[in-house]
Amino acid sequence: MGLTLRQQQILSYVVQTYVATAKPVSSQAILTSGHVIVSSATIRNDLAALEDEGFLTHPHTSAGRVPTDKGYRYFVERLLGDVELPPHEENTIRHQFHQARLEMGQWMQLAAAVLARSSRSAALISAPRLEQPRFRHLELISTQSQMALLVLVLQGGTVRQQVLALRDPTDQSELSQTAARLNGLFGGADPATIRGRLAGLSDFELDAARSALELMAGDANQPSTEVFRDGLTEVLQEPEFVSQSGARAIVHALEQPGFLQDLTLAKVGTVQVVIGGEGRWHELSSCSMVMARYGVDGFATGTVGVVGPTRMPYGRAISSVRLVAGLMSGLVGDIYGE
Question: Domain locations in the chain?
C-alpha cells in the first residue's frame, strides 16, 4: 500500500527516535512529541497499519514499536532526503585531508579515523585496485655481461622486477639508453597502448617491452588485500552487540579478506546502503552498511564505507561516506595522474 503523509511522518519519527534512544517508541511518545497533531487513537491505528505492512514490529510484549529492515529502507529511500554534514564539520574534515602528506597509506588511515568518528560507525576502506596498470618508468641494471635486471615502476608506485637474459653482452650505458627510449615511448601508457607502439623497436628493446607487458599483465585486476579499519570497538558496545555471539559474528564478517571485494557497487561517487545484510551476509543481519566506490572508473578504484547496527544515523553516515569518497577520489587522481 502507499503510505499516507501522516503515516510517513509517524514512520520517520519512529525511525529517528529509535536510532537515537535504542528504545521502542510508543504511541504516547508520538502524541506528546507533537510530531503529528491527531488523537492517540489515530496514532495507534496508523502504527498498527505500519506494522501490518511490515514497516514496524513489536520487539516483545512492549507497547512500543521499532523499525524493520523494510521500514529503514523506506526511510532511507523516501523520507531521509539529501542530508549534508554541518558546514563546520565538513570544513574540518577537508582541512584534515589538506594538511595530510600526499602518501596513500597515511590518507587511508586518516580516512578510516575521520569516517568512523564522523559517521559514529565502524569504518572500512580498501586501498585502490588498479583496473588498468599504467607504465611510469623502467630501469635496466647490468648484473652480468648477458644478464640484466628490469625494474618496472607503475603509476601509483607499484614496483615489479624481472631478470632479462640478453642476446649479446651489453654494458650499463647501452642499458640506460634503452631504458630512456622506452620511458619516453611508454610513459603513462596502459598495456594496449604499449602494444600499439612496439613497431620499430630493436630486438633488445622489444624483449624489454614484452617483459614489461608480462609484469603489467600479472598486476592487472589484482584485488587489494589492504583494508584500513577504525571504530569497530565502539560499535561493538552498542546494545545490538552485547552478546558475545553477536559481536563475534560481525567481527568475523568484517575481517574476511575478500569482504569488500564481494560488494557489487555502482559507479564511483554513488552511495549504496545495505540494510540487514539483505540476505547476502547472515552475520550482518543486525547491521547496515553504507558504501561507495572511490577513485577513477576504469582505472583505479577502492571501497570506502561504514558498518553499524541497523539502528544507524543514516543521514550522517551517507553524507560522511559521500564526502570521504570524494576526497579519496581526488587523491587517486593526484597520485595516478588522472
Answer: 5-79, 87-130+223-336, 135-219
Torsion (CA) 22, 24, 26, 30 in degrees, nearest 10: 30
DSSP per-residue codes, 48-62:
HHHHHTTSEE-SSSS
In CATH, the architecture of 87-130+223-336 is 2-Layer Sandwich (3.30)
pLDDT at 101: 64
Provide the b/e sequence for 107-137 (b: ≥16 CB within 10 Å): bbbbbbbbbbbbbbbbbbbbbbbbbbbbbbb
20: its cell numbers: 537515537
**β pairing state of 271-275 and 287-296:** antiparallel
- CB distance 331 to 104 below 8 Å: yes
DSSP 283: G
DSSP letters spanning 3-47 = PPHHHHHHHHHHHHHHHHH-SPBPHHHHHHHTSS-S-HHHHHHHH
What SS3 state is found at 265?
A: coil
**Would you state the pLDDT for residue 316?**
94
Q: Which of 321, 291, 284 is nearest to 118 (CA)?
A: 321
The three cell numbers locating residue 231 = 571504530
As a CATH number, domain 135-219 is 3.30.390.60
pLDDT tens per residue, range 266-303: 678 789 999 987 767 777 788 899 999 998 887 788 88
CATH number for 5-79 (one of 1.10.10.10, 3.30.530.20, 3.40.50.10610, 3.90.550.10): it is 1.10.10.10
Task: Report angle CA 160, 163, 166 to the nearest 5 degrees.
Answer: 135
175's enclosing H/E stretch is: helix 172-186
- Interval 142-186: pLDDT, tens: 998 889 999 999 887 778 999 999 988 889 999 999 999 999 999
